């Protein structure tokens, strides 16, 4: 950090080509040599109100704070302004945002919650710190370059048992040290998992949310709940330690939400299944070693764990979100799979898949809501720092009205989510399957419909900046481009809405009349 102090008068003398200083947030920057390299052009820097002056307001109308944190730009700072203190700073690892509605109320000072304990708070701090320090830089890099998450970061996630925790509470956590001891395995509940899902979606990249081994999160539970002890003993440790990767392979070009229509077939040949067919939109499929696969068998629908071999081929599908998710088209060409790899009973695959769907959908709700809250924070900051006609954007009633709707949607979703999470904590796995499928479906469609509205409103607030992949509006651009993923993956929005109502109709008492 440059220690030299200057007065504003001294800085003002450096206001021309070859000798150009500016002040941003009480810090003095020497832009003399940088001016010609400035991505926004050199002439804007020589404007009378900028050269040698305090350019804080104009700077934050055009750049994100992270620009000043990049090493190549941070080193342009040569000192500070005497008697002034810099006030703008990025949150430290683990720190909560103080922007209103940027955090759920349970994390806001002075607010109470019936659901969270001090243990959850401690876990939240440890988890946010971990994500900001270890995962965040990787998230930003991978979202941009489309490369899969590095083994180095996966290894660090395994050290804190992140993958295991993402499967929810259960015996698979026994004997593991969770998030460096921030929670004991017997205390771990769905609110801890909600915290993880919230933290992992805070980096403004929807592709990375799925690239962060979402495939195993949705594909391993069937192994854990329905695999034979031998299969579990081999596969579960490999996947939870990040040594092997796993994907859920249900959807096909032939069938999506209508799981019953799938065409991949498994035919018995002695102690083996011979599996033939294709799967589409398989998250993490490009790099998966195992595929939890929905197959048509003689007696119905059966789920089988298929290990990658030379009869399994995967091809990346170009989607509108980042290739980091490893979305694949998978072809099984007469793959021989031991019958011992069957998950659940033969012909009983629908039960395996349906019970798994609830947790998957709940997870999508958590991450979608978290991403929406990030959008609210971006809009709150932008609307405050963007000056139009001499006033901040927040002075426009139409902007405040959009913020009001956005905030209300996120808060409504959050409250409903916490209620459902509380029920999950107090129901058995089978009870969850029978009682919560409908509410989870309804909540998912509510949250994803909100997401579409939030995408539209935030784009209006950011204007042209929401249309560029980099710069001020990059989070909004990403959200707007990808919010439909949440509305489709794990069950299409309309199907979710319908499921919720159909489940409710089934429970209508025969005694009820107007
Ligand atoms: C330490 C000082 C500065 C640095 C390191 C810097 C760096 C950058 C960078 C990296 C960009 C590319 C866009 C982005 O990544 O956000 C940019 C764009 C720009 N900068 Fe600067 N800048 C500085 C100061 C200023 C100042 C004082 C002005 C005042 C007018 C300015 C005006 C612009 C403009 C107009 C753009 C284009 C913005 C857009 O495309 O939306 N910059 N600057």
How would you sum up this structure, described in words?
Its cofactor is FAD. Belongs to the acyl-CoA dehydrogenase family. This is Acyl-CoA dehydrogenase/oxidase. It comes from Mycena maculata. Residues 3-82 form the Cytochrome b5 heme-binding domain. The chain is built from 17 helices and 15 strands. Helix 13 packs antiparallel against helix 14 (397-425) and helix 13 runs parallel beside helix 15 (429-462). Helix content is 45%, strand content 15%. The mean pLDDT is 96. It has 514 residues and is α+β, with helices and mostly antiparallel strands. The chain folds into 4 domains: 5-81, Cytochrome b5-like heme/steroid binding domain (Flavocytochrome B2, Chain A, domain 1, Roll); 105-200, no CATH class; 239-347, Beta Barrel (Butyryl-CoA Dehydrogenase, subunit A, domain 2), CATH 2.40.110; 355-506, Butyryl-CoA Dehydrogenase, subunit A, domain 3 (Up-down Bundle), CATH 1.20.140.10. The protein has helices at residues 8-12, 56-60, 66-69, 71-74, 118-145, 151-159, 162-165, 190-200, 206-211, 214-219, 221-226, 229-240, 349-385, 397-425, 429-462, 474-488, 493-506, and strands at 5-6, 15-16, 19-24, 27-30, 77-81, 246-249, 265-269, 272-282, 290-297, 300-307, 312-316, 328-338, 342-343, 387-388, 391-392. The strands form 4 sheets. The protein has a 5-stranded mixed β-sheet. The protein has a 4-stranded mixed β-sheet with strand order 6-9-10-13. Strands 7-8-12-11 form a 4-stranded antiparallel β-sheet, with no helix packed on it. Residues 22, 29, 31, 38-40, 44-45, 50, 55, 58-59, 62-64, 67, 73, 76, 470-471 line the site of protoporphyrin IX containing FE (HEM). Residues 22, 29, 31, 38-40, 44-45, 50, 55, 58-59, 62-64, 67, 73, 76, 470-471 line the site of protoporphyrin IX containing FE.
